[in-house]
Structures are given as structure tokens and as C-alpha cells.
Specification:
By secondary structure, this protein is α+β, with helices and mostly antiparallel strands. The chain is built from 15 helices and 11 strands. The radius of gyration is 29 Å and the shape is elongated. The chain has 3 domains: 89 residues, no CATH class; 197 residues, Hypothetical protein, domain 2 (Endonuclease III, domain 1), CATH 1.10.340; 168 residues, Nucleoside Triphosphate Pyrophosphohydrolase. The protein is 36% helix and 15% strand. It binds a DNA duplex through helix 6, helix 8 and strand 9.
DNA sequence: TTCCGGTACG
DNA sequence: CGTACCGGAA
């Protein structure tokens, strides 16, 4: 029995099937049904290093390398190889199209105008779960304030969180800072270019490591994010859910094949460009809803388009409907200062600051008695201030802020907090809902997104003035602060 | 109101 | 491998 090599894919020297020419199988019905990881139909066993296995290691294309197997010239196995070959050729064409498309159509984004791995890394972390439009002003401010790994490593956590405020997923910011410290300690402040070293950094997973390796260092590392998943699933007509482990594996293979094909091209910085092109196509053309297939550079080979499945791919995830939650929070004023509390080290929004409050089962109008019972605080003139709605995971949270005049703290069990001036308040990192409430106090016009906040720069949060009116249980009642009109409070 | 999404962690 | 984390856009 003759033996034949299963050539490495992607990349490699090209497939040669003995006794067959490239055109012999033109017209062979390609499996475009998406997951092509069905084993080669031609054989039921294969040999690798002396061991015989029942099935080929091939997932999709012959992914296994240097594996010998019995050849069946002209038979099913050759057909299989032909399919593999055509798939590869198709991928090379698609990669070429993308490489040409990108420089013409890509948005000019600030992190694309640099090759500084730190700048690119920061952008990739920010762009996790966050859209370009949102992240851009944050990135600019961040690079201004913390322009190097060393600067980030040396920055106090509270300052880093403040710079992140509004982006959500605050663990990203904490991890970014820790990772910078590790880069300083382990790599002398130089961002490593090896995938393994990148993966060892907190907050850097498979996607981000690949993104930094390819975009900053032009290595043929695969990336698969939401955009790329959608593009590849449609391109290859993958109808099964990308969340299935096997499908996800397949998508990573395809992503690797794409960047591998780019690596063989002559285009400058091809790997960097290809990966960015895949994401850019997903962001500009291959949109989740209403994709712009007419202007897609890959409309020709796109399997989903040919089959009219663009709307069905990628398979949607079913989510349980959101459960309603209510947070009652209190803007307690005392002599121009407001009571704020810092979250503990565990749980939601850890180490961010919030107005004191509690969770309630249903929306209701809290009474002074509620306030005393829940927070141990006696207050006067309770009135609704603002309601903020947002959705987190399966919870639709309604945060209802109430304004009240602090009188005294009754219970020693009550959690302490810090009384802060408006200026100090503006420097604390707050979750978005609370930031929106704080904006009612500091004046609606001033936004705490990077675009608007000028007067807050240079502040070092967390170093606020000595803690004012200690809520002592003594019962001594601070003289009521003169009532200040606060903008945004409905008259009456 | 619904949908979208990388990484860490258990 | 399922779940928690967040905010924004359609």
C-alpha cells in the first residue's frame, strides 16, 4: 500500500495529490455546509507514530501534520484532499481580498496610528465588550495620563479605576494595572511578543494575546472575537451555534487559516492587517443585523449569502428574560458633603464608590423609617431625585436615588462611609448608575466621560480630605446644613 | 426592551 | 463548561 503525506494546513507547501491534477475535480460538490470537520470519508483508520487510530485527526481540513495514511488514488480520499485544497485556495483568495480592502475602507482609529505594543494592548483591553466609539475618548485620555507600562504600573488603583469609570467591567482595569506591574517585573517594562508570555498576563486571554501578537508584532496569531466569529460563521455558512465547543474550535481553525494565508502574502504587515480587516469587516459591513452585503468584498465566496442564511447566522443565543431588581440609594447631604461608601474587595463593582442604599424587592417610596432600619441613619426631607435604569446580565436594575438631609447616625452597626465634598466626589470612581446620580449634584453639563471632564484631571482620587462629620452614635445632631438647591431636582 | 460580548473563576 | 461582570446600541 502506498503512503502519502497529509500536508500541514494552513500554510505549507501546497497539496499535491499524486496522479490527479488540480482541475480533475472541478465541479466536485464542495461541502459548504459549514462544519466540515467530518472525517475524511475514505478511511476509517490512520497511523501516527506507529499507532493505528480509528479516525483521522482531521477537523475540517487535514489539520494533523506529518501524519501518514493509506492513500486511495482517485478514490474518496483524493476527493477529500481536493476539497481541502479548494478550501485552502478559497481562504487564500479571501485573505487577499481582505488585505486589499482594509487600507481603503478601514476607519482611522488612534491606536491604528501607532505600533506601540502598550498602546495597542490598552486598546484591545478597552475594546473587549466595548464599542470603538465608546472606547476612543477613554483610550486617548488614558494614553495621555498613563503613556507607558511603567506609568501604569506605578499608578494607584483608584486613579486607574477613575480613568476607567464608565467603561464597565472594572476588573479589566485592575487586571491591566496588575499586568503592567508584571511586565515591569518580568520583562523589564517591555511588552512580550510571545503568545505564552502574553497569555500569562492577567486579563489577557486567547483573543487579546493573539491581537497583540498579530497587530503589534505582526505574528501569524489567530484572533476570534465577536466580529470575527460572525464574519467567519457567515463566510463558511456555519449554522450551528458558535458557542458549541466544536464550532468554536472550528472557528479558531478558520481564523488561523486566514491569518496563515495572509502570512504567505507579500502584503506589508499582512498578519496585522488581515486580523484587523476581519474585525473591521464585522464592524462596518458584516453587521449583526442588516449586514451590507452589497458592499462586502467577500460577497462572492460568502456561503451564508449564497444560501440566503445571512439572517440566520450566527445562531442567536437564547437569553432568559431579565429579572427586575430595585436599588434604593440615598444622597445624604451634610454641610455640603455627601456620604459615600466604597465597595468591598469582592462582588460587584469592587472597590468602586457608591451612594449608600439597599436592594428592595419592588419599587417603593422609602420612608425615614426605612432609612433608619436599613442604614441606621436619621434623615429629614426625603424626596425622589432621579431614577436610573440599566441592565446587567439577567437583571434589569432600577436605581432610585432619593435625596435626604442627614441628621445623625443611630446605630453603631451601620457601615461607615466617607463624607466627601462635590470636588472629592467627582474624583471617586463610581459605577455608571451612581455617576449619573452624582452628575445631578455636580451640575448636569459636566460629564465624567473623558471628553467632558477637564477639571478632574490631575487629581489623585483616594486621597480625599480627612473624613468629616463622623456619624457618632452619641446622638449629637450636626446643625442642619443650609438647604442648597440642586440642579435637576424637580421643583416642589 | 432586547441584544451584544472576552476573561476569570468555580 | 456555566456563570459573573457592565454599558451601549438597535
Amino acid at each position: 500500500m502506498r503512503r502519502q503525506r497529509c500536508f500541514p494546513l494552513p500554510g505549507g507547501e501546497g497539496l499535491r495529490v499524486r496522479g490527479t491534477g488540480a482541475n480533475e475535480y472541478e465541479g466536485f460538490p464542495l461541502s459548504n455546509s459549514g462544519l466540515t470537520d467530518a472525517p475524511c470519508p475514505a478511511f476509517t483508520h490512520w497511523k501516527h507514530r506507529g499507532t493505528t487510530y480509528k479516525q483521522p485527526p482531521c477537523a475540517g481540513f487535514c489539520a494533523g501534520q506529518n501524519i501518514e495514511f493509506p492513500s486511495l488514488p482517485g478514490g474518496n480520499h483524493s476527493r477529500y484532499l481536493m476539497r481541502v485544497m479548494r478550501q485552502r485556495r478559497k481562504i487564500a483568495v479571501m485573505a487577499g481580498n481582505l488585505l486589499e480592502w482594509f487600507p481603503v475602507h478601514a476607519r482611522s482609529l488612534p491606536w491604528r496610528r501607532t505600533r506601540d505594543p502598550y498602546a495597542i494592548w490598552v486598546s484591545e483591553i478597552m475594546l473587549q465588550q466595548t464599542q470603538v466609539k465608546t472606547a476612543t475618548p477613554y483610550w486617548k485620555r488614558w494614553m495621555r495620563e498613563l503613556p507607558t507600562v511603567a506609568a501604569l504600573a506605578a499608578a494607584p488603583e483608584q486613579r486607574v479605576l477613575k480613568l476607567w469609570q464608565g467603561l464597565g467591567y472594572y476588573t479589566r482595569a485592575r487586571n491591566l494595572r496588575r499586568a503592567a506591574q508584571l511586565v515591569v517585573a518580568r520583562h523589564g517594562g517591555i511588552i512580550p511578543d510571545r503568545l505564552d508570555d502574553l497569555l500569562a498576563l492577567p486579563g489577557v486571554g486567547r483573543y487579546t494575546a493573539g491581537a497583540v501578537a498579530s497587530i503589534a508584532f505582526n505574528q501569524p496569531a489567530a484572533i476570534l472575537d465577536g466580529n470575527v466569529t460572525r464574519v467567519l460563521a457567515r463566510l463558511f455558512g456555519i449554522t450551528r451555534s458558535p458557542r458549541e465547543a466544536a464550532v468554536n474550535r472550528r472557528l479558531w481553525e478558520l481564523a488561523a487559516a486566514m491569518v496563515g494565508a495572509a502570512a504567505e502574502s507579500k502584503a506589508p504587515r499582512a498578519c496585522s492587517r488581515l486580523n484587523q480587516a476581519l474585525m473591521e469587516l464585522g464592524a462596518l459591513v458584516c453587521l449583526p443585523r442588516q449586514p451590507k452585503c452589497d458592499s462586502c468584498p467577500l460577497r462572492q465566496p460568502c456561503a451564508a449569502r449564497r444560501k440566503g442564511l445571512v439572517g440566520e447566522i450566527p445562531a442567536a443565543r437564547l437569553r432568559p428574560s431579565a429579572e427586575r431588581r430595585y436599588h434604593e440609594v440615598f444622597v445624604l447631604e451634610n454641610n455640603g458633603r455627601f456620604l459615600m461608601r466604597q465597595n468591598p474587595d469582592a462582588g460587584v463593582n469592587r472597590r468602586l464608590w457608591q451612594f449608600p442604599g439597599y436592594e428592595s424587592q419592588a419599587a417603593h417610596r422609602p420612608t425615614p423609617a426605612d432609612l433608619l432600619g436599613r442604614l441606621g441613619i436619621v434623615a429629614a426631607r426625603l424626596e425622589p431625585l432621579k431614577t436610573v435604569r440599566h441592565q446587567i446580565m439577567r437583571y434589569a436594575i432600577e436605581t432610585r436615588a432619593h435625596r435626604a438631609e442627614f441628621q445623625r447616625q443611630e446605630h453603631s452597626w451601620a457601615k461607615p462611609g466617607r463624607w466627601v465634598s462635590l470636588k472629592e466626589l467627582a474624583a471617586l470612581p463610581l459605577p455608571s448608575a451612581h455617576q449619573k446620580i452624582a452628575q445631578m449634584l455636580t451640575g448636569g453639563a459636566q460629564s465624567e466621560t473623558p471628553s467632558g471632564a477637564s477639571r478632574l484631571r490631575r487629581r489623585r482620587p483616594g486621597r480625599a480630605a480627612p473624613i468629616p462629620p463622623p456619624p457618632s452614635g452619641s446622638g449629637s445632631c450636626p446643625s442642619p446644613a443650609p438647604r442648597r438647591r440642586v440642579r435637576g431636582v424637580p421643583g416642589g
